[in-house]
Automatic annotation (TrEMBL):
Pfam families: Pyridoxal_deC (PF00282). One of its GO terms (molecular function) is transaminase activity. One of its GO terms (biological process) is carboxylic acid metabolic process. This is Aspartate aminotransferase family protein. The modification N6-(pyridoxal phosphate)lysine is found at K293. Keywords: Aminotransferase, Decarboxylase, Lyase, Pyridoxal phosphate, Transferase.
Length: 471
């Protein structure tokens, strides 16, 4: 045995103690740690011939890269709808690495049963019926990928084409309709061979990111073949929601698969105040929801749900003698793109058991209240302009500088100045044709004091920014 490995085995307790101390210091220092850091140009080292052991490796990491690890899991990182990790989720995730289970479901571990129970918890949290089955995947992109793969399989069946065995070559171009699709939808279509160019953008309601049902109806009426509708439950710019009930009703007249991208908006179901926004979610053929967003579990983690597990089995079944034939309740190796699957369900199980439905209702409602608070401050300030109502947890706004055209590079320059303070992190976007800024509240740690710190940083930065613009 390598001498460093042998030493690490004998010193496992003190090593883990140092890791615990390091982790505790990091978590306790989140409020002081910069929320965003532009990393320097690191020199890429050569692989050492002889190692240095875990304790010295920790020292080497801290010396070289430690300062560049940001407080993105903290309360004032408001970009990309990023949640933090609850204490229970951290506990579960640490055990994931200790247990090191490959959750494919070969009946050699209880891990698959934990995933099944966690999926059941989540169905209840999102008010999705038992007619939906589900699995954990790596993120919203892969969750949307799985849902659209099932949609492709469904369309092939409608056309009586066996693409599982014969490929896509006999399949005509598939039309996909959506109002404000996330960029990962195009990425999934590319990976699935359906083509980004076949995603047809349907006009939205005036000053909304919600699809216009009349326009969708016109598009569907012109479509002779079965097609796909990608609905949105929480758009990234303004957290807008499509009328899921209205879209589902169109299935009585038109032949389409309804996929709902509810990456973070699905969590509206946790709250009596906001659950009306996702009314009709249960009617979807497939649903994508992210876990490392508002569920506040570590990266990477998401869920996919579908009413059509038989199609999922057709697409992802892994044919190997050592795996056997899929049973009535198929193993996860037959239901997801991965043959090797991390125990992603465990952090979610811990957090759901620790805090329950009420805990997540509190997180959702508190984040939404804080988004409303920021929206009110922006609405009452002449230096900024609110671009859309604060419907849930995302605030979309832009700069209002007299005599200055606001371009995207203007927004980026402002955000660079804002991020230099290290206090907050926001992301640029374009809303309609307007260059804008978005703040997404989804972290369990965020409090009213954090909104105050954010507002002070915005106010200080806009003052400096206007001075620099007028020079």
């Amino acid at each position: 045995m390598d001498r460093n490995l042998k030493t690490d085995v004998t010193r496992l307790n003190p090593i883990l103690g140092k890791i615990l101390s390091h982790a505790t210091q990091f978590l306790q220092g989140l409020n002081e740690r910069p929320v965003g850091v532009v990393p320097p140009n690191y020199d890429i080292a050569s692989l050492p011939k002889e190692g240095i052991g875990t304790e010295k490796a920790l020292e080497a990491f801290n010396n070289k890269y430690g300062a560049g690890i940001t407080a993105s899991s903290g309360p004032r990182y408001l970009g990309f709808v990023t949640g933090g990790s609850t204490p229970a989720a951290i506990a579960g995730d640490w055990l994931v690495s200790i247990f090191d289970q490959n959750v494919i479901g070969a009946k050699d571990s209880s891990a698959p049963e934990v995933e099944r129970e966690t999926i059941s918890f989540l169905r209840q949290l999102f008010q999705i019926s038992d007619s939906h089955s589900g699995t954990f995947v790596s993120g919203a992109t892969m969750s949307n990928f799985v849902g659209l793969a099932l949609a492709r399989q469904w369309i092939a069946q409608q056309l009586k084409i066996d693409i599982t065995h014969n490929g896509l070559y006999a399949l005509p171009a598939i039309k996909i309709f959506s109002g404000s699709p996330h960029s990962c939808i195009s990425k999934a279509l590319s990976m699935l061979g359906m083509g980004k160019s076949h995603l047809q953008i349907v006009p939205c309601l005036p000053e909304r990111e919600a699809i216009d049902l009349d326009e969708l109806t016109k598009n569907l009426s012109r479509c002779q073949e079965p097609c796909i509708v990608v609905a949105n439950a929480g758009t990234v710019n303004t957290a807008d929601f499509d009328d899921l009930v209205g879209i589902a009703a169109l299935k009585q007249e038109f032949n389409f698969w309804l996929h709902v991208d509810a990456a973070f908006g699905g969590f509206a179901a946790c709250s009596p105040k906001y659950c009306h926004l996702v009314q009709g979610l249960d009617t979807a053929d497939s649903i994508a929801i992210d876990a490392h967003k508002w569920l506040n579990v570590p990266y990477d983690s998401a869920m996919q749900f579908t009413r059509h597990r038989n199609l999922q089995l057709e697409v992802f079944q892994n044919n190997a003698a050592y795996l056997g034939v899929p049973a009535e309740n198929p193993d996860f190796v037959h239901l997801t793109p991965e043959n090797s699957r991390r125990f992603r369900a465990l952090p979610a199980w811990f957090s759901l058991i620790a805090y329950g439905a009420q805990g997540y209702q509190d997180i959702v409602e508190r984040d939404c209240e804080l988004a409303q608070l920021l929206g009110e401050k922006i609405r009452s300030c002449r230096d900024f302009k609110l671009l859309a109502p604060v419907r849930l947890n995302v605030v979309c706004f832009t700069l209002s500088v007299d005599g200055q055209e606001i371009r995207l590079d203007t927004i980026k320059k402002f955000l660079e100045m804002l991020h230099d303070s290290g206090k907050v992190f926001l992301t640029p976007t374009v809303y309609g044709t307007v260059p804008a800024i978005r703040a997404a509240f989804s972290n369990w740690r965020t409090q009213q004091i954090d909104v105050q710190i954010l507002w002070e940083a915005l106010s200080e930065t806009i003052s400096s920014f206007k001075d620099s613009v007028m020079q």
